[in-house]
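Supplementary Note 3. Input sequence used for the single-chain structure prediction.
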Amino acid sequence: MSGERGAAERGNVTPIVAAALALALMLALALGRLGGAVADKARAETAADAAALAAADALALGRTPGEAARAAAETAAANGARLVVCRCAGRDAVATVARGAASAVAHATVAGGSAIRP
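The predicted structure, written as discrete structure tokens, is reproduced below.
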């Protein structure tokens, strides 16, 4: 009788193992998506910093706000992002960029003839 009971109990392990494997797969996929989102956010921040600095540099060279915004857009694109908006006024440039679902904002100021991040 114990041999029959052992065989029946062994069959009950299969659904538990299958459920555990499915759960592990879902967790791995979720972690992969989270890692991708974190990487996109970091790249968006880098692109925003570079775009703001490019715009401020253009302002420091005496370019118009429109030319500064074009410099920011080119720099954002070179960093794999899209310039959403660039506000350039006087000695300040604020660039907002998007990369995938992530976005970032950076500010740069012209100081002493060169662009710096405050």
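The longest helix spans residues 2-60. The two ends are 80 Å apart (CA to CA).
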